[in-house]
Amino acid sequence: MITAAISLSEQNLITIAVLTVVLIGLYLFNRYGKTESDHRADRLERQYKEMTPELLASVPDAELAEAVVANAFAKLDKQRPNVYAELPKMSPGRCAVVSTWLVDRELDSADFETLFASSAGALAELAADGMERLGAPRSAAAVRAALVAESEEQRAETHADYVEAREAENLSQKMIDYIREFTGEFLDNQEA
Fold first, then answer.
1. pLDDT number for residue 17
2. CB 93 within 8 A of CB 176
3. What angle do CA 133, 53, 183 make, to 5 degrees?
4. Contacts with 107 (C-beta within 8 Å, 6 or more apart), sequence order
5. Does residue 44 carry a pLDDT above 80?
C-alpha cells in the first residue's frame, strides 16, 4: 500500500511538472513566438491607431498606404477580426485603399489562385471597386476578369494583365495620391 501511495505521489509530481513545462512553453511561444512581421504589424497598429491630421501628414509616402491599413486593422476586433464585414463600414477611401493594398500585396507575391485560396481573396471585389475609385480601371478590370475566369490558365492570363496594368497605372502612387488628396476619409474623429 505504501509503495502504491509513493508511486501515486510521484505520478502527481510528474504530472504537475509536465503541466508547468507546457504552460511555460505556451507563454514563451505566445510572447516570443511571433514573427518579425507580426511584431511590425502590432507596432504599426499601435502607432497609427488614432489617425490625426498631423500624424497622417507626417507619414512618408513610402509608408502611407501601410499606415492606413494599420489604422483600419487597429479598429477590428482582435479576437475575431472580420475585415470583409467591417471594411465596407469604414469610409469609402479607407475601404478602397485597404482592400486594394491587401489584394495587391497578395498578387505581388503570388497569383490569383493563391489570392482566392487566402483570406484576402474575399476582398477581391471590394479591391476592384477600390481600384476604380483610386483611378486604376485596368487593374480593376483584371481583378474582375479573374473573378469570373473559369480555368487556371485564364486566371494566369488575368494575372499577367494585372501585373502590367498595376505598373502602367502606378497603383501604389494612386493610393498615395488619393490619401493625400482626400485626407478627411482617413482621419479618426474628424469630419470627412
1. 64
2. no
3. 10
4. 115, 159, 162, 163, 166
5. yes
Cell triple for 90: 469604414
Contact 166, 139 (CB under 8 A): yes
191: left (phi over 0), alpha (psi -120 to 50) or beta: beta
Contact 53, 190 (CB under 8 A): yes
CA separation for the pair 66, 49 (Å, rounded):
12
Task: List the end-to-end C-alpha distance of the chain, in Å, as a whole number.
Answer: 79
Q: Half-sphere exposure of residue 70, counting CA atoms within 13 Å on the CB side?
A: 23
Helices and strands in the chain: count of H runs, count of E runs: 11, 0
The type of residue at 18 is V
Chain segment 100-154, per-residue pLDDT in tens: 999 999 999 999 999 999 989 999 999 999 999 999 999 999 999 999 999 999 9
CA distance 79 to 56: 27
Rounded CA separation 146/150 (Å) = 8
Q: What is the DSSP letter of 187?
A: -
**127 near 143, Cβ under 8 Å?**
yes
Q: How many residues does the chain have?
A: 192
CA distance 70 to 73: 5
* Helix, strand, coil tally for the chain in percent (to 5): 80, 0, 20
